[in-house]
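Quick question, first post here. What does this chain look like in 3D?
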Amino acid sequence: MTATPSSRRPGRCPPLVVRSGEALARLHDDVAGLDLEAPVEGAPSKLWMAPDRPLTRRAALVHVLVELVQHHGQMELTRDILLAREGGN
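> Answer (accepted):
Ran it through. Tokens below.
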């Protein structure tokens, strides 16, 4: 059976889409008035400190975004593998 939009089971995606939208709105609110050049509060231990400079909120935010992008890519690959299995490829 080939995977087409009509043959896919929707699962519980709609609630996840809503929660993702809420999280994105919260992120916008949190970052809106943030001083991105200020140091992070509760800096990580030296084991996790790669740069030899103070860690700013901007650097922490960029790190979080990089991690999110990597996980998104992994989720896309997983989806593609599952769809290929469903389609018999």
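The radius of gyration is 19 Å.
The CA atoms of residues 22 and 28 lie 10 Å apart.
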